[in-house]
């Protein structure tokens, strides 16, 4: 019986977790691969000087939490320019933005939070706006990874939310693949919400980071895929027998299941897993399904879970029209992460 149980892996589609707003807030820490991220172990690429410059600016921002030095007699009355309450790291995929953001989080005093943009909006949705503001009131620092505005509702919500927290003394840091003045382009009529977008941009000092995606420097440019479902099943059985915590699902069934669960709960769906197996992968035909899958991959990557798959390589699941549309950067980030997850 034991061997039979090991050979039959459980399915993600059997998981429909619930999670409270308080539990969600408790998950707002850096992904485990950044548990030891620091300024000291960030390695700037010498071919891209902006990485070293970004490190220096992040260090300087962190100095803002240190007590101000008392001025002497001749220093009285002198005023230094007011520093902005936030710093914004803009750059491509895999150039170390999240490492620097996590390092800043580790250096910051508490209470402090670290999460992706979608995690914050999901938490606000779960708690309600007033309760979310109350929960985060008193926070010394909030880190927002993958800052992205996909609709006008999120634009106004986050502008108001961050504004209230900054007014209470909270400092902010964010990463994104999109400069603040370009947020929302290609997804909605950004010009109609220019005031809200500008209000967000005005809260941050913008730091540009150039470079190559480290996830693709030492791996092949495609996600590994098994030739047949049978080969995948054999790999699943072997890993289950070896004691790895693995699930096995048909791709289309998982995609359907994700549509029944709020993205804020994906983090609990993958909790405790080592490997996820997906059979019969096919390209997306529906953008809503594709965006849900992007949110799911974010949680899988953060948890450092390996993906085994058969069918279409995972980095090819987003149809050409999707990659050419307004969500291009979201999809490209997911591709980068799936390549890494399929080669861990």
From TrEMBL:
Keywords in UniProt for this one?
Answer: ATP-binding, Cell cycle, Cell division, Nucleotide-binding
* Entries under Pfam families matching the protein: AFG1_ATPase
The UniProt entry's coiled-coil ranges are: none
State the Gene Ontology BP annotations: cell division
- Xref: SUPFAM superfamilies: P-loop containing nucleoside triphosphate hydrolases (SSF52540)
Q: Name one GO molecular function term.
A: ATP hydrolysis activity
Annotated signal sequence is none
Disordered: region residues? 1-26
Which InterPro entries has this protein been placed in? ATPase_AFG1-like (IPR005654), P-loop_NTPase (IPR027417)
GO terms for CC? cytoplasm
Which NCBIfam families does this one have?
Answer: ZapE (NF040713)
Q: What is this protein called?
A: Cell division protein ZapE
**Biological source species:** Herbiconiux ginsengi
**What lineage does the source organism belong to?**
Bacteria, Bacillati, Actinomycetota, Actinomycetes, Micrococcales
């Amino acid at each position: 019986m034991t061997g039979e149980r090991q050979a039959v892996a459980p399915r993600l589609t059997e998981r429909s977790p619930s999670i409270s707003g308080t539990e969600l807030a408790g998950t707002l820490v850096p992904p485990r691969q950044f548990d030891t991220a620091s300024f000291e172990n960030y390695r700037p690429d010498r071919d891209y000087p902006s990485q070293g410059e970004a490190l220096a600016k992040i260090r300087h921002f962190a100095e803002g939490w240190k007590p101000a030095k008392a001025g002497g007699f001749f220093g009285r009355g002198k005023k230094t320019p007011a520093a902005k309450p936030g710093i914004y790291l803009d750059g491509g995929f895999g150039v170390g933005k999240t490492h620097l953001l996590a390092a800043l989080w580790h250096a910051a005093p508490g209470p402090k939070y670290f999460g992706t943009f979608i995690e914050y909006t999901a938490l606000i949705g779960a708690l309600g706006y007033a309760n979310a503001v109350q929960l985060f009131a008193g926070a010394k620092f909030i880190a927002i990874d993958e800052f992205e505005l996909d609709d006008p509702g999120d634009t106004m919500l986050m502008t108001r939310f961050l504004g209230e927290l900054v007014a209470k003394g909270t400092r902010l840091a964010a990463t994104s693949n999109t400069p603040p003045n370009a947020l929302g382009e290609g997804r909605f009529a950004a010009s109609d919400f220019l005031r809200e977008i500008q209000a967000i941009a005005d809260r941050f000092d913008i730091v540009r980071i150039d470079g190559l995606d480290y996830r693709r420097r030492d791996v092949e440019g495609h996600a590994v895929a098994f030739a047949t479902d049978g080969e995948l099943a054999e790999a699943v059985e072997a890993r289950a027998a070896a004691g790895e915590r693995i699930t096995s699902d048909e791709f289309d069934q998982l995609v359907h299941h994700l549509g029944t669960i709020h993205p804020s709960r994906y983090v609990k769906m993958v909790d405790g897993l080592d490997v996820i197996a997906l059979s019969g992968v096919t390209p997306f035909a529906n953008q809503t399904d594709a965006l849900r899958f992007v949110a799911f991959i974010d949680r899988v990557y953060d948890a450092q879970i390996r993906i085994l798959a058969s069918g279409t390589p995972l980095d090819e699941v987003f149809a050409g029209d999707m990659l050419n549309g307004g969500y291009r950067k979201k999809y490209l980030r997911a591709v980068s992460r799936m390549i890494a997850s399929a080669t861990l």
